Amino acid sequence: MFKKGKVCDIDILNNHLLLQYSDRLSAFDKYVCDVPNKGKILAMTSRWWLERTQHIIPNHFICQDNNLMIVKKCDPILLEIVVRGYITGNSATSLWTHYSKGVRKYCGIAFPDGLIKNQKLSEPVVTPTTKSDDHDQLISPSEIIDSNILTFNEWQYIKEKALELYNFGVQLAQQRGLILVDTKYEFGKTSNGQIILIDELHTCDSSRYWELESYLRLHGQGMEPEKLDKDIVRDKLIKNEEISNELIETLSKTYKQFFNRLTNNNLVVILSGSEKDDWHTENIKQFLDQSKLKYNSHIFSAHKNTKELLDLLDYYNNSDMNIVFVTVAGRSNALSGVVACNTHFPVIACPPFKDKMDMMVNIQSTLQMPSNVPVMIILEPCNVVAAINRIMFH
Fold first, then answer.
1. Cβ–Cβ < 8 Å for 87, 136
2. How is 323-363 classified by DSSP, letter by letter?
3. All residues at 6 or more sequence positions from 4 whose CB lies less than 8 Å from its CB, including other chains
4. Given this model, what pLDDT does residue 251 score?
5. Domain spanning 266-393, CATH class
6. Can 76-262 and 266-393 be said to share one CATH topology?
7. Own/partner pairs, 356-365, CB within 8 angstroms, 24+ separation
8. Lowest-confidence range among 2-11, 61-70, 125-134, 360-369?
């Protein structure tokens, strides 16, 4: 191994580097715990952003699989370029940490009196720090240039590209109902002197994300917004509270939910018991189309195609998608129960009743599920899709 980092291990592959994103989580410059699947999610998230920002600046990405990423080898510039859109944070280098102690000039930028925690700044600011294996230190642009870390033109280029990357991320995150609060970028130089973007990009480790709705609702009351990053752990450490297994599990789920939400990696799978139910399935599809939700539709009888149904469920259970199953079956509704006890994803039953008499006669087979077979029953297709939106996006 060439280098073992706080969360990422690096090996040399000829003219490339192999990055192995681990499940290790660090906070305040020290290892805290392992978070299941964190490395894989970070690699996938970073790839997703790197592939979508090459129009702004070239980057080091070549390919990615699971928690591994192969990248171009270059000479890293020993700076972390932090872009902040809000005054917040609880680390030693955070803007709010210094501002709350009376500091009004930070990384060479003057800030006015009267700002409150989590307030949106009038415009994003670029606040660099040194890059160190121990403790990063704040540094101003003039100090960067005077120390010959970068030339004036190189600094201007990096500052401009960092702001473009941040503004692009802000816009896309807002479309997902999220706030990209602040983030850090790292840059390097290729063998021919070209400055490119390196390291991870806009992940929950390198960035702060808040729920937009919770910020709008809670900030005016002086309350903290809902967070989707490792501040969940930082907040506990500051209070000297234990990092419990339950908290680690919550963080693991948060990272996965963030990725699915960011990438719109959601899928509705409609399972109907018969072609005779197509009229009802089409109603559900119309509302899914209106909500721009992706879906697949299959016809399997739980009685007649049991093995094929279980094989299909096994396929979806092993995917990286965030799935909600919708079952369409009436009369002796075995379909909903078979699906619910053979998947870890939510199952909504929407039986195809033609009229009230049909519903009164056949509803019982859907209502009467065995214990530990969780099936949600919703009769109206419009309400099915409304529920799916809440499950997937809230």
1. no
2. EEEEEE--SS--HHHHHHTT-SS-EEE----SSHHHHHHHT
3. 10
4. 93
5. alpha beta
6. no
7. 358/330, 362/330, 362/331, 362/333, 365/330, 365/331, 365/332, 365/333, 365/334
8. 360-369
Do residues 136 and 184 lie in contact, with contact meaning Cβ atoms separated by under 8 Å? no
Distance CA 9, CA 6 (A): 8
Q: Two tokens at 342?
A: 């053979």
Residue 215, H or E segment: helix 212-218
For residue 160 the two structure tokens come to 């401009």
User: What's the rounded Cα separation, in Å, for the pair 142 and 250?
Assistant: 42
The residue with greater pLDDT, 225 or 360, is 225
Tell me the residue length of the chain.
Answer: 394
Residue 393 has pLDDT above 70, yes or no: no
State the Cα–Cα distance between residues 221 and 99, nearest whole angstrom.
20
**276-307 as b/e: b if 16+ CB within 10 A:** ebeebbebbbebbeeeebebebebbebeebee
Residue type at 104 in one-letter notation: R
Backbone angles phi, psi at 122, to 5 degrees: -65, -30
Query: What is the C-alpha separation between 354 and 358, in angstroms, rounded?
Result: 6
Mean pLDDT of 59-64: 98
Distance CA 41, CA 226 (A): 20
pLDDT of 111 higher than 70: yes
Mean pLDDT of 353-357: 78
pTM listed for this prediction: 0.76
- Give residue 162's pLDDT: 98
Q: Structural domain boundaries of the chain?
A: 76-262, 266-393
Residue with tokens 């990422």: 8
pLDDT at 68 over 80: yes
Report whether 106 contacts 112 (CB < 8 A): no
Residues 188, 179 contacting (CB under 8 angstroms): no
Look at residues 348, 333, 344 and name the one whose alpha carbon lies nearest to residue 389. Answer: 348
Q: What gap in Å lies between CA 387 and CA 349, rounded to an integer? A: 12
Residue where the block lists tokens 């002197």: 193
Which CATH class for the 76-262 domain?
A: alpha beta
Among the listed residues 294, 305, 297, 293, the one whose alpha carbon sits nearest the alpha carbon of residue 271: 297
Q: Which residue type does 200 have?
A: E
